Amino acid sequence: xxxLKLLMYLGAHAFVPPGPNxxxxxxxxxxxxxxxxxxxxxxxxxPGWSAPQGLIGSHNKYEGDTSPTRGDLFVYGNSWKLQIPQxxxxxxxxxxxxxxxxxxxxxxxxxxxxxxxxxxxxxYFFYGPLFMANHTAEYPxxxxxxxxxxxxxxxxxxxxxxxxxxxxxxxxFGWGKRAIGDEYGIVEFAEDILYFTSEYPNTIxxxxxxxxxxxxxxIDFSDLTSGVYDIPTLLxxxxxxxxxxxxxxLTAPDILKGLFADITEPLGILTEMTGGLLSSLxxxxxxxxxxxxxxxxxxxxxxxx
Length: 305
Prior knowledge:
Elements: H1 25-39, H2 73-76, H3 84-91, H4 104-121, E1 126-127, H5 146-153, E2 155-156, E3 163-164, H6 186-199, E4 207-208, E5 217-218, H7 221-224, H8 231-234, H9 239-257, H10 264-280
């Protein structure tokens, strides 16, 4: 049976174009366009493009190992199903329901745990170059408690006996966008990476296991970028954001060749988008190439960073 729902688009429901006070549009635009080009359904936009890849086919393009709740692809055979033990691990980092808040500090702690687990259990682990929080008057920096954490992931039941209900994932009632003036954009994303790095330096590592567990081998950023970036350079000003955008731009042609017979149009869209975002960051180090040949020692690296 085909069900149709009429949508009211006048009056209070009229379309309002994005404005300067909306959610961090730079990061949103990057994620949407990058996801569409790499894994979306471009046939619906242009019949000349290839078949959709989908998020299930997005490993090392749009998602990777060390997910907070999803398993590593080469360990579980998929990277999209929530693993109850991993959710339990996250949940247990804030055991007191009265004070639980799964904020950036907790997620940084979890990143260390997931990184070390992948090194220990996934022979093909590859780690290439945040999470939502609710804003209230009492918690201007946001709070994500146990109830809402479970709601996000479609989890029911009590700790120790959690049940995952597929299709029940949701944004909790009463949640809205981040506070005006506190939008989460590219710069804020970079600041979170810097915080992760200050707490757990492996966050800024690039490398992977070489076919056996506990064989993690890092790649020197200077070698990867022909001397343009090293750790001190990356940690300066907006350079983390510069590096991420430049890497997406420079590695896109090789990735897209495996997806499209003609990469001209999707590459043009991605290049225009990343170029605009890079301009908004101001002065970035001039990265001309990323030496992806150094990834060949990692069997789990696939085609991309």
